Amino acid sequence: MTTDRLTIHPVLTPSERLAFIHFMWEVYKDDPYWVPPLISERVEFLDKERHPFHQHSEVALFMAHRDGRPVGTIAAILNRRHNEFHGEKVGFFGLFEVLPDQEAAEGLLDCACDWARQRGMTAIRGPVSFSTNEECAMLVDGWDGPPVVMMPYNPRYYPQYVEAAGFRKAMDLLAYRMDLRHLGPHGENLPPKLLRVAKRIEERGSFTVRPINMRDFDAEVERFKSIYNSAWAKNWGFVPLTDAEIDHLAAGLRQMLDPSITWFAEKDGKPVAAMLPLPDVSQALIRAYPRPGAPEWWTMVKLLWHWKVLRCVDRIRGFAGGVLEEYRARGVDALLLMKIAEAGLPRYKQAEMSWVLESNVMMRRTAEMLGGEVYRTYRIYEKPLQDSPVQSEKTTP
Known about the structure:
The chain is α+β, with helices and mostly antiparallel strands. The protein folds into 2 domains: 2-172 and 380-384, Aminopeptidase; 178-378, Aminopeptidase, CATH 3.40.630. The chain has helices spanning 14-27, 39-46, 80-86, 102-118, 158-164, 192-204, 217-231, 243-253, 282-288, 296-309, 332-344, 361-369, and strands spanning 2-3, 6-10, 58-66, 69-78, 90-98, 123-126, 128-129, 135-136, 138-141, 168-179, 208-211, 263-267, 270-279, 315-323, 350-357, 373-384. Strands 1, 2, 3, 4, 5, 6, 9, 10, 11, 12, 13, 14, 15 and 16 form a 14-stranded mixed beta sheet that branches. Strands 7-8 form a two-stranded antiparallel sheet. The relative contact order is 0.17.
């Protein structure tokens, strides 16, 4: 696609993919809040041979140039498992980055729309990279600091560009901020009702609760998988993880986990609930600041220095978990929260519960009961795709 000096072309070769990844540093070079990713992780993410999402779905990358200078990127995504699970014909866009250039933004979004339309999709949503199990949504409110681990971040002008291209809100995802310092060193100041329920359940011995056993990690992953895919099945936009995807995710999280705050609940030996908070390693990563041209081994040394030696990580993110439907409203979640608080305080002083669907009333009530307040809003957009009898000249095959 060519518009005056603007060109958009598919990203096909390893060198083009590396340029696609490096472009982020151009967008955020003057932004003190952006947390850069490890380049090796991004390379693996886009490698069709190494990332398991590509085993069942299709991703096309596009890059925009103006007068030969890169000005934007986007991924067009066909998530076949999403469409099978939800009975939809929806495409997605993700990995959307653009300099202050509205024409380039709209051209990239049009390109993703055309790509999805060619594959018979009737609508397109995003940003989602590559599914709601990974980074998704666009920050539309709350540019007051760096994002927490595995949460997205973007410039303030992105929502304006996406809406100008005809996209409208599909769903908001909320992030709740909590100050943990008032809970006491062992969680003794948790809400009285929660403590009362948790202690009653503990005394009855109805459930066995325990921290994760890292020596039996592979089996623990299987236990978590059975809870996660079942407990989240009815959530908007959720797609069950394949075995390969959850194994890949677990391998990436293994070095990040704090075993003292990762807990399971079992009933008669059956896993029925789990909570997986993550230490916010973004607090260390932003200090290590990965960048093109810097040896990654040196970045890792700095990351570990800030994290393990200087202990700058004092925040956690309520990342994943759930309770099997038949065991909800029986107090097991209160018991897990109490155990995590007892183990994690006072090491962690702040928490973010994210993300929470705006429609998830029960989870929002839990966050508010724990003293959380919404401080950031992320949005997934959607646009209908109208059939066109004449193929657009903008389309890049």
